[in-house]
């Protein structure tokens, strides 16, 4: 006789949620058992974030029911009651940046009544953080915390409310290898205390590493729930995409073509982008770069290695302390985004929320922001031309939207990222600079977007990809690895994951690299004992630098 099962910490059944004509959830369901690490995966727009909103009481479903440990969900608006059951750690911080950690921990629930006793509050915060093994000073301002510390504070805050279910929405998106390792160690420790997790990630290798059960959503519906160990990666991807890859020859690029003007690339022609002695004090040392037509150059590096600073300097977001930058032989005024765009530099930013999109505006308006001069005579913008242009982008980039006039705020995260890319491509740039272009993008769309970058190069432009994701870097003709503001290795084709990860972690030994991609074997340089460092991730769908 089997033991009586404990009720699920959360169970959602028959959930329907519509946004105007869009059905975001169509009789969706999910159940998470106590102490379980449960992954929720699906392509961009599958309904994952909407389910999170329903499970955390932020959105009321049109139909269906949610129960916590067998009890009906609290009433909508009873925030405190929801917080006692479930918490979500988002990519975007929920803490108040100007307040201290202690204040954030007790926001809206200061202990006692009347006057706040700051000393006692700090002590309580210290005890709380210690209880969950979080090494953060309660007096620190939240804005001074790194992403990793901030997430730990948010987890501690959730647990202190009594929640035994934590939803993590792409928690590793901004963490480096060490940060991911520490987060996972913390989550494993909390599981032993019967805390359950719902883990949302586009990095499928993380699902295999951390979770025991996986649920797949596709087109607003539940398609399967299975033990991770019994589901090979190909089957998981097939469930997400709804095909086995055979129908499309397994190549999602086939359906994705950007309206770039096709010219034959002129290999070895005049560089599309050149820097000479470009430098920013404290961020990166003087740098000479050359990108030729048809070439995709990767700038690899972990957080704060300098690669992102280089990318942002190329597009004019940061002003260099010295050096020169030119596009097709013409100098570009440094430190000016409009000049960079005019000079032919297309930019795909890392953070689409802060730098990418005007959320209240439509897909069409956002996609055409950089080409309004081409949409009508004498400075006018013809709506019909805008829509037609946007529709081409929607089709070619496979953007899931109800149409060109839908506000961008109503798109899923990954589809917003595609609009950002559409906008950068709209001007047919001489060189496309993309910073972590596939962050938040599902596994199938990722291939498609990277295919688009290759297409841009094939059409005679150049591209620079700034990333720590091995899959992004794999499509590059050449990769420069940054560490502490310096290029420490250069790779042509044929590098192994282990070699590149070792270089990004500063573990380049003598004879490790040659100037033209003659990267030698780093031997056990990457042998930190961490399987994810081992790099030769042949069995992984994705190869992000962990
Ligand atoms: N506030 C909203 N208004 C209109 N449509 C919305 C809104 N929120 C979500 N949608 C739509 O609901 C569908 C599901 O979106 P959701 O954000 O849940 O997807 P997701 O699986 O989280 O995607 P991603 O992986 O890209 O984050 C999408 O088609 C999206 O455009």
Automatic annotation (TrEMBL):
Keyword ATP-binding annotated: yes
Composition-biased stretches (Basic and acidic residues): 530-546
SMART domains reported for this sequence: AAA
UniProt keyword Signal, yes or no: no
SUPFAM superfamilies: P-loop containing nucleoside triphosphate hydrolases
GO molecular function: ATP binding
The entry's keywords: ATP-binding, Nucleotide-binding, Repeat, Transport
Listed Pfam families: ABC_tran
Region feature Disordered, mapped onto this chain: 506-546
Domain ABC transporter: 10-244, 267-509
Protein name: Sugar ABC transporter ATP-binding protein
Native species: Streptomyces luomodiensis
Origin organism lineage: Bacteria, Bacillati, Actinomycetota, Actinomycetes, Kitasatosporales
């Amino acid at each position: 006789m089997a033991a009586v099962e404990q009720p699920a910490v959360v169970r959602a059944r028959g959930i329907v949620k519509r946004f105007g004509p869009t059905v975001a959830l169509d009789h969706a369901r999910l159940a998470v058992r106590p102490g379980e690490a449960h992954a929720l995966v699906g392509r961009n727009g599958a309904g994952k974030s909407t389910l999170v909103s329903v499970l955390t009481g932020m959105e009321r479903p049109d139909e269906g029911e949610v129960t916590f440990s067998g009890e009906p969900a609290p009433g909508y608006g009873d925030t405190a009651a929801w917080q006692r059951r479930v918490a979500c750690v988002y990519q975007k911080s929920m803490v108040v940046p100007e307040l201290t950690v202690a204040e954030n921990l007790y926001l809206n629930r200061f202990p006692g009544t009347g006057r706040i006793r700051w000393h006692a509050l700090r002590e309580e915060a210290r005890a709380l953080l210690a209880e969950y093994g979080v090494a953060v000073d309660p007096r620190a301002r939240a804005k001074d915390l790194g992403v990793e510390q901030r997430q730990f504070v948010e987890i501690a805050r959730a647990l202190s409310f009594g929640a035994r279910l934590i939803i993590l929405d792409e928690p590793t998106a901004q963490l480096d290898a060490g940060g991911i390792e520490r987060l996972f160690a913390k989550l494993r420790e909390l599981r032993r205390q019967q805390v359950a997790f719902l883990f949302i990630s586009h990095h499928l290798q993380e699902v295999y590493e951390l979770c025991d059960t996986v649920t797949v959503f596709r087109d607003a519906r539940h398609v399967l729930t299975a033990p991770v160990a019994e589901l090979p990666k190909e089957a998981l991807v097939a469930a997400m995409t709804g095909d086995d890859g055979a129908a499309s020859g397994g190549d999602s690029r086939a359906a994705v073509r950007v309206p770039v003007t096709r010219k034959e690339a002129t290999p070895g022609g005049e560089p599309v982008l050149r820097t000479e002695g470009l430098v920013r004090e404290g961020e990166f040392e003087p740098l000479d770069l050359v990108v030729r037509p048809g070439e995709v150059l990767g700038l690899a590096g972990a957080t704060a290695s300098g690669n992102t600073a280089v990318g942002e300097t190329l597009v004019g977001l940061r002003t260099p302390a010295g050096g020169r930058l030119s596009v097709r032989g013409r100098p570009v005024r440094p430190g000016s985004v409009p000049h960079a765009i005019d000079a032919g530099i297309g930019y795909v930013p890392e953070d689409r929320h802060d730098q990418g999109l005007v959320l209240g505006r439509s897909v069409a308006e956002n996609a055409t922001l950089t080409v309004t001069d081409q949409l009508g005579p004498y400075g006018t913008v013809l709506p019909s031309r805008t829509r037609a242009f946007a529709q081409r982008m929607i089709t070619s980039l496979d953007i899931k939207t109800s149409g060109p006039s839908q506000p961008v705020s109503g798109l899923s995260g990954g589809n917003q990222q595609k609009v950002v890319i559409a906008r950068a491509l709209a001007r047919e740039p001489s060189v496309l600079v993309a910073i972590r272009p596939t962050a938040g993008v599902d596994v199938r769309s990722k291939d498609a977007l990277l295919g688009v970058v290759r297409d841009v190069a094939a059409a005679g432009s150049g591209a620079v990809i700034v990333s720590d994701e091995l899959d992004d870097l794999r499509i590059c003709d050449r990769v420069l690895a940054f560490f502490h503001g310096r290029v420490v290795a250069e790779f042509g084709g044929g590098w192994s994951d282990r070699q590149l990860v070792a270089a990004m972690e500063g573990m380049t030994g003598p004879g490790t690299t040659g100037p033209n991609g003659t990267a030698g074997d780093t031997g056990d340089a990457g042998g930190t004992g961490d399987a994810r460092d081992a790099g030769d991730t042949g069995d992984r769908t994705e190869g992000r630098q962990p």
